[in-house]
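Now for a typical sample entry:
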Amino acid sequence: MTPVLLVLNAGSSSLKFQVFILGDGEEPQRIFRGLFEGLREAPHLRIRDRTGTTVADEDFGSDGAFGHEDALLHVAAWMRAHSGGFELVAVGHRIVHGGMTYCEPVRVTAEVLEALERLVPLAPLHQPHNLEPIRIFRRRFPDLPQVACFDTAFHAGQPEIARLFALPHAMMEGGVRRYGFHGLSYAYIASVLPEYDPALAAGRVVVAHLGNGASLCALNRGASVATTMGFSALDGLPMGTRCGSLDAGIVFYMLREMKLGPDEAERMLYTQSGLLGVSGISNDMRTLRRVAAREPDARRAIDLFVYRIGRELGSLVAALGGIDALIFTAGIGENDAATRAEVLRGAAWAGFELDDAANASGGPRVTRGPGPTAWVIPTDEELMIARGTRAVLSWPRSSRPQPAL
């Protein structure tokens, strides 16, 4: 039997998963990727194999009862039915927040799970959903090893000065500091830079992870030195539905003058702001681009997104003391040539010279000339989780975990 690893990334109404062969080679090999959407509303599952061929496409009604546990059990059953000589030996999870304690992947125990639950106030809209599959697997398949991999871990080595807020010292000691997120994505990009240009791995690089969640990260020799997200995943750039950087006084105004409760204010900042809030149309950049010519508010949302990227880019160039390359990744970064072009034209002050033809074709290099370079590099957070889980299990090894499914 060939051992395989299940990688999970759970959201409020979705469950992304991938299956990797956990062989004795250097790299886990992806064999399936799937997505459950619309949980507790109108669940839909699609699974593709390693060639991109759809091997499952199912709807599960709309009675509102089909949730994460049902989805996980269905995935487990599907894997048993399509095992093909594979045995599931471990599960790796994306966990948004590791706090000050977890700076590398860790095998989940009762004590680890309890510690991660205490971090829910630091990531209230992400952490509970990330942890739910862990609890389900511990209850249903208690002997199956599980590993937590953290979005905050990649930034743990930043200089202390980059992690401070100008708040009383006791608050910092209590955990109020800049953590940074999207670390699994940034760690992957850092790991593959030498494949694109060996000089990038030793240089000053800003990575733009641009998707429904968006942030920038400054890398020096492949290590994070500053990033735009801070204490929460609400900070930094405007995103699909999140506001990004905000004057804290606005929150007091919302509470006192607008008479919003804390939960209502939080919901507005996380789910009703960003591209959706500014445009009043959509949080999807593809939709906004389609209607921007006739919808001024859609154009305004795009312009604000690009403007904020330019401002934050400038701050990270200052933190690095210069820039050698800019990397675009994630949904918008990898697929939206117009956003890349607008960002690079706005960054001409730093020496970037856009190559229109290369950008239109997706790169990988999208600049020309002697100045700093810009690249399009697809990210792979799930592979980073697979790598982290493999390392925690010390695979390959003579004493392998026993399959639980």
Observations:
- The first helix runs from residue 68 to 81.
- The chain has a mean pLDDT of 93.
- The chain is about 40% helix and 20% strand.
- The two ends are 13 Å apart (CA to CA).
